Amino acid sequence: MSSSDLNKQILALNAFDQRRAGQLDPALADRVRRRQDLFGSASVLFYDQPLEFVRGAGCWLYDADGVAYLDAYNNVPSVGHCHPTVVTAAAQQLARLNVHSRYLHSGVMDYAERLLGTLPAPLSNITFTCTGSESNDLALRLAARFTGADGIIVTETAYHGNTELTGQASPSSLQPGSIAPRVRLVPAPDSYRVPAGELSDYFANAVQEAVLDLGRRGIGVGALLLDSIFSSDGVFADPPGFLRAAVEIVQQAGGLFIADEVQCGFARTGSSLWGFERHGLQPDIVTMGKPMGNGYPIGAVVTRPSILDALREREGYFNTFGGTAGAAAIGNAVLDVIEQEGLMANAQRVGEYLRQHLRELGERDPRIGDVRGAGLFIGVELVDPRDPLQPWGAASTIINAMRERRVLIGAAGRWGNVLKVRPPLCFSNAHADQLVSALRDALDATPSSP
């Protein structure tokens, strides 16, 4: 498979082909064309038959006809779609006050203190943003100002945002050959193809080479930016601790470790609130977004005062909608729900249950080569049954077959062959059973050689 084929597969995976609009039901085709006319070629829809949702509740999304779909894909509504605690907090605060953050507000400071209390003590300054992209953009700027070096190390199929700067650090969104000179790509820690005992050295050696190359070219290493669940790379969580050696190499070279918690944070991995904690790491910067607002746009960057001061010496930073009273009330309500409903423990318990049953499904179907993950973030690698180290290129077919069975999942990975499962944290064993049943039926309905 060539690099151009690979890139096309990732960009096009499970995207609706706008040229097929004429093959849809006339009413649906009209809505699809209207959207395309309004948003242009950059607009992306999912599925061969695009869905239109009008309502959500818990782990469910409902279309215009009232048909329910089990959501095992969207990690933005992390505590469940339209959670009443979050909705009430939003309504009450938005009805009272929501202005920019240049005024004192105890609710915002209370939320900041609560978040900081969950992180290692040296990380004592927080800056609020609106999105994970903004958070990672600011984090990369902080790293460059503090270290005096521009080099960025990320994994080969990473995604860290859609600003110009974070786009450079998101190879999964780029065309081949368009990687910026300041960026070095390292192979993802492929625990399916690299033995567990060798994984730490495998990843550390790749990072070491990237550090050396940045040094040879006079760029220097400013940051190692990692999502510790490696979501876009195909979900690689284990063994816990294997990232430490790579992080130490970067920090010893003068660079900073940025822990991107946009996807793996807020109890997603089950054993801890933050993904980096599974590896016993000490980040220099932590970034947040998506799940912290359960659908409301809020993000944050947490770091040491000295790192933040390095940026302030040269430029200011202000985010109009970052850290408003409304955002803080919503973020605080999300933390309340995680604690009061025991969602971290639920992610651990149900995640283990789901992985176990997916592995049992793999025992009867050799196209499931690996099931991995942590908590309620799971990757199911589809492989060629004749050669289990080779990807099976039918992920999009399986995703659409599951959509027909009213279960929503995504895909990721270097070859786009890893089914990505990341449901709301209120997912139950019954939901897991429904997902496994749908996947079994989808596999049974799909030939091994599509």
Q: Characterize the biggest β-sheet.
A: 7 strands, mixed
Give the rounded overall mean pLDDT. 92
Give the fraction of residues assigned to helices: 25-40%
Supply the number of structural domains.
3
CATH architecture descriptor of the largest domain: 3-Layer(aba) Sandwich
Strand content: 15-25%
Sum up the overall morphology in one term: globular
Oligomer: single chain
Number of strands: 16
SSE sequence, one letter per element = HHEEEHHEHEHEHEHEEEHHHEEEHEEEH
Q: Could you say which structural class the secondary elements and strand pairing correspond to?
A: alpha/beta
Radius of gyration, whole Å:
22 Å
Largest beta sheet: strand ordering: 4-10-9-8-7-5-6
Distance between the termini: 16 Å
Remind me, CATH topology of the largest domain? Aspartate Aminotransferase, domain 2
Indicate the CATH class of the largest domain: Alpha Beta
Uncertain residue segments: 1-9
Q: Could you name the CATH homologous superfamily of the largest domain?
A: Type I PLP-dependent aspartate aminotransferase-like (Major domain)
Count of alpha/pi helices: 13
